[in-house]
Amino acid sequence: MSQEGTPQAVDPATLGKDELIKEFADLHPASCADILANRDEPLIRDVLLELNQDLASEIFGHFHEEMQLELSELFTARQLTTLVTHMSNDERVDFFQALPEDRQEALFRRLAQSEREDIIRLGAYEEGTAGAAMTSEYVTLPIHLSAVEAINKLRREAPEKETIYESYVVDEQRKLIGVVSLKDLILSPMNMPISKIMQTDVAFAYSYEDQEDAAKTLAKYDLLALPIVNDQDALVGIITHDDVLDILNEEYTEDVEKLMAITNSAGGQYLEISSFEHFTRRVWWVVGLAAMGLISGYVIESYQDILASFIILAVYMPMMAATGGNTGSQSTTVVIRALGLQQIGLGDAAKVLWKEFSIAVLLSATLIALTFIKVQFFSQNAMLPTGHSLNQIAWVISAALGMQVITSTLAGAVLPLLAFRFKFDPAVVAAPALTTVVDISGLLIYFTIAHAWLF
């Protein structure tokens, strides 16, 4: 029971426009966006128009793409131009490229020259590259400055930059020659040249590199931002740590969808994507794998005489398939992860296969023993043809399962390595595709061993 006078928590979903504006004064833009996300779009528009322009643009930048496009329809051309002008460079380009072509042209004409040039420059990079993910809001310092001159320059430019904690020292051709942190500038003697303060061993990425590789470089060196250079080694932008989180989330989503055989992935919010688009992403693999599943049926039909004589074998077919799929998926997952983190390469293929084989042998031995006991215990009353014992059947099932574990584990390791070798995404061969392959091979192993031992 609450005591009289105790302040009650206010549900933001019940606040009106004026209360929201007051509430947002003390909140992070991301929190503001979360509060507004489930409110009516006209109210969201009214709130954004009343807020400080920089804050409104930051909040707008935290909305997902579909919501940004829907909201943009509610603003006048002048209001939208103001909102877009105050967005960060990289978010502005992403939003601009998501607009229909006719609206792009209308907005582009109203933007200032500097914003136009920025959109053209950043929008020229291929989607998925480091150049497409970078921002141009960074600070460069000429090498002839002293520490105090560099600090004064930072003070002047800070309001317009995304980060000032690290500044990049460039020559007259904008070639990257060093990096200096704000901490080092402050702690150094005021008259010391930045050439004596900067670090010359600078981690960087090329603009044409895959954005995931650039993100891994930033994480590897524990940087706040990663400089991006063109093929002439001139500095053209930076990728900040918050951009890296977005990149890794995007890549993770893509990999998960590939693991589940969902094609043509374009990300997006689940509820915002139409049922038909979800259908088109999934149908091709499902149909293809269903067709491959016919091979499993053919294998079973080819050995129907064994099944007719030994009904007990059919009881343990699901266990064979599940165990093969599980062990193969485990192997595939760890190999794909190791490839993705660059812990292994093609030169390590023999080591990988030997390690997985060693693991498979241990798993196989364990499961053979457990399966033998399971068959003996659960199938005591099974009907068997004359001349055959339960002990014999238990050995057939156990041996087949042990062989299935070894082949599935090796297949789970080989398939990603082969895909990597031929420049395909290793994630594509995982989960459903692997399971189908393992099902077919498992049935062949199962019935081949049964036929050899029982007939």
What does this structure look like?
The chain is mainly alpha-helical and 455 residues long. The protein has three domains: 12-124, Alpha Horseshoe (MgtE N-terminal fold); 140-240, CBS-domain (Roll); 270-454, Orthogonal Bundle (Tetracycline Repressor, domain 2). The chain contains 21 helices and six strands. The strands form two sheets. It has a three-stranded mixed beta sheet. Strands 4-5-6 form a three-stranded mixed beta sheet. Strand 5 and strand 6 (235-240) form a beta hairpin. The radius of gyration is 30 Å and the shape is elongated.
Which descriptors would you attach to this protein?
3 domains; 3-stranded mixed beta sheet; Tetracycline Repressor, domain 2; disordered N terminus; CBS-domain; 455 residues; 21 helices; mainly alpha; MgtE N-terminal fold; single chain
